[in-house]
Amino acid sequence: MYKKILITGVNGQVGQALNEVLRNTDIGGSLIGLSRTELDLSNPHQIRQVIHSIKPDLIINPAAYTAVDKAESEPDLAYVINAIAPRILAEEAAKVGARLVHFSTDYVYNGNKPTPYTEADATKPLSVYGKSKLAGEEAIRAVGLPHLIFRTSWVYGAYGKNFLKTILRLASEREELRIVTDQFGAPTAASSIATAVSQAIIAWHNDTTGVYHMVNAGQTSWHGFASAIVNEYGRMQSAKGWPPLKVEQIHEITTQEFPTPAIRPVNSCLDVSKLARDFSVQLPDWRVALKTEVEKLAL
Q1: Domain 4-161+188-216+269-283 listed as CATH 3.40.50.1220
Q2: What pTM value is reported for the model?
Q3: Could you confirm whether 109 is annotated as catalytic?
Q4: Active-site residue (options: 109, 117, 129, 212)
């Protein structure tokens, strides 16, 4: 099906999951996963050189600048990695006749809509991170090659730095946590994304191109997500022989009580019906995915 598939950011949480899933999927050909050292998206010359050398027929780009708050003080670097690099990837992919799969974010929306966002809704990012990711989407579209852009949200996994790992670390150190309860979205496991992408690229046999929402089913708040993490850990603790958590209470707080440099959307819920319609791909409920990720933890 594909002779050569190139994955960027293979050491990141989505990159790792993609590498693992695709190596166990019948996609044919070779899978080439490159780390940041081997393919640095802040280095345009290296991007062009690597694509020209490998000549893949499919590029999957999960690599990104994802430090949402830090981006407010590093806008130039965020734009280089999230906007300029995707344009160069798209240009080079077009030259070698490759397709491009890219990842974007719920942060392209302002979060004011009371219902889940569809791909047809207007974008209005509130943060440098969101603006840089939207610029990347627009750059890819402008090149005009066959592409799929998957917008996802609240990505986490058993590996890497993310909300799951942060909550477990804090819960092992503190008796009380204070977590935001008035922002809503779908926690989405890296492994769920990887499985869905593998299904989509196998089904991608026509001229379908554009933006798709790809998140685990259901929704919760950050407080609800944190509570579920602690509860799931507790359920697994005895069976795994893990050390007990110290936390006794998780308090609900508002966004106003937890100010951050970057403004987050209140509503990050994404409608995924387009993905199901065009690719027959559906991600599991976020609670089911969380259970799977917690079971993978090595503590």
Answers
A1: no
A2: 0.93
A3: no
A4: 129
